[in-house]
């Protein structure tokens, strides 16, 4: 039974999945929007939302918690100095997912995930 089991496995091992999510969220904050599969976009959306919430707080503890997820110091700095203050007046919903249709080749459902207000 899967009672209260959260998250998507995406047919990957735990370490591979964590690295994938970390890389996708880093690139989302670097480029403000990325195109990926719909399942991956839905999987990284709560992670990205939590990181923006940490950036809105802006204290040292929040920065260290976000640094566990974002390995690039330049992206971490951008998150706390640009994205966090810009989202200060929003109550939530910092990301948006657009469905793009099937990918040529394997017909995987593609999606565009972007930061709101970019």
Tag the structure with descriptive keywords.
single chain; 118 residues; alpha+beta; 50s Ribosomal Protein L17, Chain: A; three-stranded antiparallel β-sheet; 4 helices; globular
Question: What do you see in this structure?
Answer:
With 118 residues, this protein is an alpha+beta fold. The protein has helices at residues 14-31, 38-57, 60-69, 73-86; strands spanning 33-37, 95-102, 109-115. The chain has a 3-stranded antiparallel β-sheet. A hairpin with a 6-residue loop joins strand 2 and strand 3. Helix 2 packs antiparallel against helix 3 and helix 2 (38-57) packs across helix 4. The model has no long low-confidence stretch (mean pLDDT 95).
Number of domains: 1
Count of individual beta strands: 3
Helix content: 40-55%
Q: What is the number of helical segments per DSSP (H or I, 4+ residues)?
A: 4
**Name of the CATH homologous superfamily:** Ribosomal protein L17
Secondary structural class: alpha+beta
CATH second-level architecture: Alpha-Beta Complex
Strand neighbour order, sheet with most strands: 1-3-2
CATH class: Alpha Beta
Radius of gyration: 15 Å
**Average pLDDT for all residues:** 95
């Amino acid at each position: 039974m899967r009672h209260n089991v959260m998250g998507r496995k995406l047919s990957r091992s735990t370490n591979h999945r964590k690295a994938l999510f970390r890389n996708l969220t880093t690139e989302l904050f670097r480029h403000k929007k990325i195109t990926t599969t719909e399942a991956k976009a839905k999987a990284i959306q709560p992670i990205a939302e939590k990181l923006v919430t940490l950036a809105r707080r802006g204290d040292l503890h929040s920065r260290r918690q976000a640094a566990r997820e974002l390995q690039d110091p330049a992206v971490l700095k951008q998150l706390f100095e640009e994205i966090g203050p810009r989202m200060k007046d929003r109550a939530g919903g910092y990301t948006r997912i657009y469905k793009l249709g099937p990918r040529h080749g394997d017909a995987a459902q593609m999606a565009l995930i972007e930061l709101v207000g970019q």
